[in-house]
Amino acid sequence: MISEELIRKVTIELLRKTVTLMPDDVVSELKSAMERETDDVPKMQLKAILDNIQLAEKTATPICQDTGVTIFYVNLPRCLNVDVGKAITDAVRIATKEIPLRPNAVHPLSRKNPGDNVGKGMPWINYKVWDKDFVEITVMTKGAGSENMSQMAMLTPSQGLKGVKEFVLNVVLNAGSNPCPPTILGVGIGGSSDIAAKLAKEALLRPINKRNEDPEIAALETELKDALNELGIGVMGLGGKTTVLGVNIEYAYCHTASLPVAVNVQCWAARRGTAQIYPDGKVRYPTHER
Amino acid sequence: MAQIRLKTPIKEEEVRKLKVGDIVYLDGIIYTGRDEVHIHALEKAEHGEKPPVDFKGSALYHCGPIMKKVGDEWQLVAAGPTTSSRMNSLEPKFIEIFRPAAIIGKGGMSQPTIDAMAKFGAVYLAITGGAAVLAAKGIKKVRGVEWLEFGMPEAIWILEAENFGPLIVAIDTHGKSLYQEVEAKIKKNVEVAKKKLKLT
Question: How far is Cα of residue B185 from the mean position of the Cα atoms in its chain?
């Protein structure tokens, strides 16, 4: 039985795993960056990053103090008669106290902080109904340092692929040392202004060692990554060979008169996690199976 | 790279000896302070009032930590740096009025802050962003908290540091910035990147 209580419990555990354990694909890319590096300053920064990941895992402590705001992606089987929103919201409130998470969610204008990461629109939950019989919950706990460097633009069709590349390059240059590089870029192309922004964030849910299924988009991901790593912004903006760990692109068809593009900048501490809850009550955490 | 151990409050003459690239470890009291602390401390100063702590000679840490209350005591969970550039518009005035000896953060700060650091004798110490558990290892004790009404990330946390680091002097009192040195290289590298992307 998939109950409200089970969803709440699993979401708390999912948040704990997500903020304390880095995904393997990101750790492996950070290690390669360390091997490539020759200068002392970026090496020292990468060593601190890798030591910190180990220490966080060993002590079950959040990797970064900025445990973000909680953005959820939920896939639901048809006819599930459970208040999933309430279960997740309660889980965020409990997790904030228990793990603990930093209370980050504030009113956008008064800046009042309720202290439990819950408020109007927070946690933000994206729902989809699917044909499978299990519930899948994915969470991204993304810090503001990198989110603040994200941008979107409504290009004209005549700007084309060149315009898209230029825009991505400018986002990275503008972000510079601020978003805790080496970063991961989620790029959303097409759709509409809101769809491009949504796709850019969703692109970050894909492991960075997995290229887009469309060979042309996959080639663009690799091309952008290679070129951006020539910039030398490096680790923490203190120079070095690695500025981006990965570029993930998602696209959607758009209006013939538009070319929306969005870049969601993700810091090296790319914390994402997924839980699956089956009808018999069995639970899997496919992103954290070790 | 010279390795230097300093204890707060730090004297101006000691700060002025530091050069970009030096590695620093800190002992003594460190105050956290980010957006709200800057805004409200400067507001207070405008009205001739003082903030609840004396920042003179201190290390101001751009950090919003995760804290846990155990009994009556606060315990530090994680304490990496926040993005310093958000304080770019406030820091020169803050340095002029409150005279901290060191600002600890990530990402560096803009020219007006570099100028204020040269004029009033302060350095910018870079700590690795996101490395929050490692940073917390250098904090021995939470001495107290002020302005908690602004929320946990925005309060002034009074931290007792022991061998807190490694920190890199990224802006010194001689007008030098490691970030600007990197930026000069980036300007050249952009052309290489553009060529690879077939933009030129």
Answer: 25
Question: Which two three-digit tokens encode residue A69?
Answer: 């705001």
What does CATH list as the number for B3-196? 3.20.130.10
| Contact of A52 with A253, CB cutoff 8 Å | no
Q: What is A6-60 written as a DSSP string?
A: HHHHHHHHHHHHHHHS--HHHHHHHHHHHHH--SHHHHHHHHHHHHHHHHHHHHT
| CA separation for the pair A73, A69 (Å, rounded) | 13
Q: Which of A156, A157, A187 is nearest to A169 (CA)?
A: A187
Query: How many CB atoms within 10 Å of residue B111?
Result: 12
pLDDT tens by residue, chain A, 290 residues: 899 999 999 999 999 999 999 999 999 999 999 999 999 999 999 999 999 999 999 999 999 999 999 999 999 999 899 999 999 999 999 999 999 999 999 999 999 999 999 999 999 999 999 999 999 999 999 999 999 999 999 999 999 999 999 999 999 999 999 999 999 999 999 999 999 999 999 999 999 999 999 999 999 999 999 999 999 999 999 999 999 999 999 999 999 999 999 999 999 999 999 999 999 999 999 999 87
Contact call for A173 and B190, based on CB within 8 A: yes
Chain A segment 143-162 residues within 8 A of B by beta carbon are: 143-145, 148, 162
User: Structural domain boundaries of chain A?
Assistant: 4-21+63-143+271-288, 145-266
The shortest CB-CB distance from A52 to any of B134, B152, B199 is to B134
**Are residues B179 and A101, on separate chains, in Cβ contact within 8 Å?**
no
Residue spans per domain, chain B:
3-196
Catalytic-residue membership of B174 = no
Q: Which residues of A touch B166 (CB under 8 A)?
A: 44, 48
In A38-77, the residues whose Cβ lies within 8 Å of chain B are 40-41, 44-45, 48-49, 51-52, 55-56, 59, 61-67
List the one residue out of B169, B166, B161 whose CA is nearest residue B124: B169
Instruction: Quote the CA–CA distance of B191 and B195 in Å, as a whole number.
Output: 6
Assigned token pair, A213: 């299924």
Nearest C-alpha of chain B: how many angstroms from A13? 18
Looking up tokens 């603040």 gives A148
CB spacing of A65 vs B192 below 8 angstroms: no
Looking at the domain A4-21+63-143+271-288, which fold is it? 60s Ribosomal Protein L30; Chain: A; (3.30.1330)
* B136 contacts: CB under 8 Å, gap ≥ 6: A61, B65, B76, B77, B78, B79
Which of A55, A62, A180 comes nearest B129 by C-beta? A180
Residues 236-255 on A with a CB inside 8 Å of B are 236-239
